[in-house]
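REQUEST
  id: r-88c1
  op: predict_structure
  target: HEPN domain-containing protein
  payload:
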Amino acid sequence: YPNSFDSGMPGDYYTKTDAQEAIENARQIIEFCEGCVR
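RESPONSE
  id: r-88c1
  status: 200
  body:
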């Protein structure tokens, strides 16, 4: 969410590792959801 911090940009708060973990978590959520609708 773009306004979650009072100031600065997301790169001031998150690292590349944080981003990679978020992408992996999202992938797992999508796989789970796809399994529920099949």
